[in-house]
Structures are given as C-alpha cells and as structure tokens.
C-alpha cells in the first residue's frame, strides 16, 4: 500500500466488485473510507421498509455515515401492516405439535436480540427522525422526494421548508414525485437552489378527496418554480402517469437557455390536450439541446390505435422546423405506429445527421424493408455509433444493410418481435438466418457490441455465435464487455416482452 501512490489505488479499485471492496474494509483506513463511501453514497429511506427505524438510528448516531451521503431517496407513505408469513407446509405432520413451542422460543429470543421495535415507523415518527438526520448530511447534493401516496391529512409543510432551508443551497439535483396538492406543499416555501443543474418532476393523479383548488397549483406554484430555475437547469426530466394536462407548463415556460438534456414522458392525449403547440415551441426554443428523449404514447392505445394520429401529426409539424433538434447528438423517440411514422423517422434523421451519435426507436416494430430504408437514411450520419430498435424478425438483409451503410456503428441493440418459425424451410426460421450469416463476413463493419432480445429473453447462443463469426470486430454481447455464454449453467435474464 505504501509503495503505490493513492492515484494508482483509486484506479485499481475501479475493477473491484462491491463485495470485493467490502471484504477489504478492515484492511486499513484507505479501504475503510472507500468502502463506507461506496456503501452510503446513496441511501433510500422508505417508510414501508421493515428496517427503516434501525437504519435511521444508525445514520443519526454515527455522523461519519451521515456525512458520506450524497444522494437521498425519500419515500413517504402510510405504513401498512406487516404481511402474514404464509405456511409453506414444509414442517412434517409428526412435528406440528412442536410449532407452539418453537414460536414461543422465537418470540423470547427475538426480544432478547432486538429489545427495540425494528418495524416500520409511522409518518410522524419518520418526520421527527428527519429533523435530526438532515442537518448531518453535510455533503448531500442529490435529493428525491416521493410523497404522492400520502393522504392530505398529513401536513409536511414544515418538514419540506426545513429540508429546503438546510440543504437547498448545496443541491445539484432535485427530483419530486407528487400529485398537485402535494406539490403545493413541496413548493410553498418557494425554495431556491443556486447550484441546481438537474430538475426532475413527476406528476401523479390525486387518489384522495378532490381538492377544488388543485387546478390552480400548476399555474400558481409549479410554473413560477419552473421559470425561476429556467436559466440554470441543464437537465430537465418531466414524467406524468396521470390524466393531468401539463400543456400550460410548456406554453408559458421561460426559455431554458442552458438546457443540454431533456426527457419528456407524458401521455399525449391527456398531458398535452389543452395546447400541444406549447411543447413544440419549448423544444424549438431550446436550441442548446444535445440529448432528447420524447415519449408521448397516448393512454388507452391498445383499445384505440387511432389515438396516435394527432401525435404523429404533431411530431411531424415539430420536426418541420429547421432548427428543431439541429444540435442534438442523442435522440430517443417513439415514432408511432401510424403510416406516417416511418417518414417521421427519416425527418428526424435529416434534422440531426450532422451531430447524431446515438439513435433509439421505441414502441414500433420495423419491417425488414423499413429497417433497411432507415439504415440508408442513417448513412448520412458520420458520427453514429449506437443504434437501438425493434424489428419484426431477424433477417440477413438487415445485417447486410447495417454493415454496408453504418460501418462506423459500435453498438447495436435489437428486440425481435415475431417468434422464429421452427420449420427449417421457413424464411423466418433461426436456422435459415444462421445459414445466411455463415455465408457472410463483414470485414469493414466496426461493430463491437451486439444485443438481441426475443420474447423477453436473450437470443440463443447459437444464433449469437453465428453473428459473431460473421462480424470479426465483435467483442461483446448484451453490453457485458465479453461474449462468454454458458447456456447449460446460466439462467436467462428475463426482460419485459414489450417494445423498448
């Protein structure tokens, strides 16, 4: 340890797993501090967790722990009663008479081992603990507060005001997830965040008694807060899983003159029903944007596919502006499943081709000919290195097009929609695809990592290996940094079977 500079040790521990790092925590002060920094850098305090009381007591009683917390996730909601333990029937019938004795012994031993109740706190108990704990978090810079499930009978105004007064001046990131009445409580103190660069707002429906004044919260509380931070925010993320109309937030927003990254994920048919043009103007005015994620899939789409028609028209109108996305290098969009969705993708490429490095297409499975056509359009993007899409079926023609038109591509992520036919003679069978690939060698393709999912599972090893044999530059599967795969010992990683 003494023979190597600290800078070298910091480089070495980057290759340690968390378990490795924790196993070294008792070796010396260097590993002790690094281990504690890693363990307590991010803390989640969830009112429903069984061990929340024990965790709060430990952090508040040991300042060296609290002072290491950089990120705090605070989930406040009513405490539920513990779930009863289900009898699995594992105890043999002949020993059932011992169960009462075992239960009595466990109860006594539990009281001896843990004389204090370690169960969930109630809301008032957690609030009292937080008044002690928050001032001890001297290096806190990232705060997420999630009170959306808390009934309005709980008054947290004083707690929120205390948090903003204590920590607001040092926060770089703030994330709030609440319904409108709770937003009024969160923003009542008119918090100021002089160092803030990342703002995340999530909106949920009010599950409790209807508040007749909640309609004013967006205009009187959220919008002024939004506009006060507009000049300094570099990353803005807005999500809504409710029927709330957020169009005034965009229509009346001040220019975000420093905005670099944005994510907008709201249902178009509810979240922008009043004035969808406001979001378009917001995107067009934000000419400093580099990374953009727009996910506006309407609610109820499965029952009403036509609900996408207004969204498709709005999106095409948006990208018709020559300055929209003109400086974007990372674009993540849902082009809709409407007939105009493909031309929308081409329009987006034509707006971003000079700078585009990463392109993600979500919620639409492309036909082979559509993927081939899109690859031809992306040929005009000399900096493109990562491409993520959904495709109906694996096809050698798609790989031919990608290798020909996107030789600089380094990362390719594909979700395959249609299950491959088990008939060898079928043009969609995996065997047909593998045979096709065995006759191809893409020497000029610089692809480094390949990810293929089908039906929520990783593609089979034989198919992945066929791709690797055809692409000499390939060195990694599924972003792992290697191509190791032992199907007889490795359990498949399950993923949702829906489009990305």
From TrEMBL:
SUPFAM superfamilies: RNI-like (SSF52047). Gene3D superfamilies: Ribonuclease Inhibitor (3.80.10.10). It comes from the Eukaryota. InterPro entries: F-box_dom (IPR001810), LRR_dom_sf (IPR032675). Residues 1-43 form the F-box domain. This is F-box domain-containing protein. It comes from Coprinopsis marcescibilis (Agaric fungus). The lineage of its organism: Eukaryota, Fungi, Dikarya, Basidiomycota, Agaricomycotina.
């Amino acid at each position: 340890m003494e023979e190597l500079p600290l800078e070298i040790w910091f480089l070495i521990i980057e290759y340690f797993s968390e378990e490795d790092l924790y196993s070294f925590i008792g070796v010396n002060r260097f590993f002790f501090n690094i281990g504690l920094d890693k363990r307590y850098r991010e803390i989640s305090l969830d009112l429903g967790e069984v061990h929340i009381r024990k965790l709060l007591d430990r952090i508040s009683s040991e300042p060296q722990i609290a002072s290491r917390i950089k990120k705090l996730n605070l989930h406040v909601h009513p405490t539920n009663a513990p779930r009863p333990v289900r009898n699995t029937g594992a105890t043999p019938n002949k020993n059932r008479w011992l169960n009462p004795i075992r239960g009595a012994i466990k109860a006594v031993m539990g009281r001896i081992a843990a004389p204090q109740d370690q169960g969930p706190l109630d809301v008032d108990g957690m609030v009292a603990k937080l008044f002690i704990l928050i001032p001890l978090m001297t290096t806190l810079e990232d705060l997420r507060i999630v009170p959306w499930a808390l009934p309005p009978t709980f008054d947290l105004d004083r707690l929120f005001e205390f948090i903003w007064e204590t920590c607001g001046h040092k926060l770089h990131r703030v994330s709030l997830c609440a319904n409108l009445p709770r937003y009024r409580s969160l923003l009542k103190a008119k918090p100021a965040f002089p160092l803030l660069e990342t703002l995340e707002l999530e909106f949920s429906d009010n599950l409790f008694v209807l508040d007749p004044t909640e309609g004013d919260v967006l205009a009187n509380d959220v919008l002024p807060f939004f506009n006060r931070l507009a000049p300094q925010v570099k990353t803005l993320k807005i999500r809504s899983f409710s029927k709330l109309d957020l169009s005034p937030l965009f229509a009346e927003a001040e220019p975000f003159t420093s905005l670099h990254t944005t994510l907008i994920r709201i249902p178009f048919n509810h979240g922008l029903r009043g004035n969808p043009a406001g979001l378009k103007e917001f995107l067009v005015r934000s000419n400093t944007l580099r990374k953009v994620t727009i996910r506006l899939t309407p609610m109820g789409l499965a029952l009403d596919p036509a609900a996408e028609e207004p969204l498709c028209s709005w999106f095409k109108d948006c990208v018709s502006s020559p300055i929209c996305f003109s400086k974007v290098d990372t674009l993540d969009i849902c082009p809709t499943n409407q007939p105009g969705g493909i031309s929308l993708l081409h329009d987006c490429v034509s707006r971003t081709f000079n700078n585009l490095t990463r392109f993600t297409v979500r919620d639409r499975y492309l036909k082979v000919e559509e993927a081939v056509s899109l690859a031809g359009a992306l040929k005009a993007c000399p900096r493109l290195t990562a491409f993520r899409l959904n495709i109906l079926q694996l096809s050698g023609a798609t790989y031919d097009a990608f290798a020909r038109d996107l030789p600089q591509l380094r990362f390719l992520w594909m979700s395959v929609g249609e299950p491959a036919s088990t008939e060898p003679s079928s043009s969609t069978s995996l065997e047909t695809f593998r045979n096709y690939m065995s006759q191809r060698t893409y020497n000029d393709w610089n692809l480094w990592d390949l990810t293929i999912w089908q039906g929520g599972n990783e593609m089979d090893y034989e198919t992945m290996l066929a791709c690797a044999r055809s692409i000499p530059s390939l060195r990694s599967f599924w972003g792992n940094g290697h191509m190791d795969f032992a199907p007889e010992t490795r359990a498949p990683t399950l993923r949702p079977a829906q489009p990305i």
